[in-house]
Amino acid sequence: MAIALCPGSFDPPTNGHIDIAERAARHFDRVLVAVVANPSKRPLFDGPERVRLLSEALAHIANVEVVAFDGLLVEFARRRGATVMLKGVRGASDLGYEVQMASMNASLAPEIDTVFMAARPEWSFVSSTLVKEVAALGGTVSALVPPGVARALRDRLEPG
Ligand code: PNS
């Protein structure tokens, strides 16, 4: 049974994240989308909210499970039996840091491989950070995030 772990902050989940999870689910028996409960930057949405938003957006895929985690990612992967960390990359600017994290994780857990999946071109410019910025400034992000996330952003950011 090949299990892939897709870790991230998902603050909030975007269509790019959903696309990576959907495509990963075609290649692995099971995909665990792992939400870091306490990311280094204070999140807009707390851990349970991010898990709920992702679970709702991924409910249509039977072999995807959304889980929260804290602590060292490789230890979580070992506990859950994942042998692959799967990361989406949007372009060269993502790759430097991702390769650094992959190398650190490989030094900690050589039996776990990191696999990079190229983002689809239509999502290559989408990041959680930019989505939050645009939404906070009154821009429309409904084409870039799942419907539940667009609603949650409106509820969170709209005055009154
Ligand atoms: O979506 P993000 O913020 O780019 O995800 C970063 C994440 C969660 C993958 C990374 O911060 C992480 O792996 N955190 C868990 C703690 C850990 O194991 N750190 C060492 C990584 S080399």
Which small molecules are bound? 4'-phosphopantetheine
Order of helix and strand elements from N to C terminus: EHEHEHEHEHH
Helix percent band: 40-55%
**Rg from alpha-carbon coordinates:** 15 Å
Largest pleated sheet: 5 strands, parallel
The N- and C-terminal alpha carbons lie at a distance of 49 Å
Major β-sheet strand ordering: 3-2-1-4-5
Mean pLDDT: 96
- Low-confidence runs (pLDDT<50, min 5 residues)? none
Can you count the helices?
Answer: 6
Number of strands: 5
Strand-residue fraction?
15-25%
Structural class: alpha/beta
Structural account:
With 160 residues, the chain is of the alpha/beta class. The chain is built from six helices and five strands; from the N terminus they run βαβαβαβαβαα. β1, α1 and β2 (30-36) form a beta-alpha-beta unit. The longest helix is centred in the middle third of the chain and has 17 residues, at 92-108. 4'-phosphopantetheine (PNS) binds at residues 7-9, 36, 39, 72-73, 101, 104-105. 4'-phosphopantetheine binds next to β1 and α4.
Labels describing this entry:
five-stranded parallel beta sheet, 5 strands, alpha/beta, 160 residues, binds 4'-phosphopantetheine
Summed up, what is this model?
The chain has helices at residues 15-27, 47-57, 73-80, 92-108, 128-136, 147-157, and strands at residues 3-8, 30-36, 64-69, 84-89, 113-118. The protein is of the alpha/beta class.
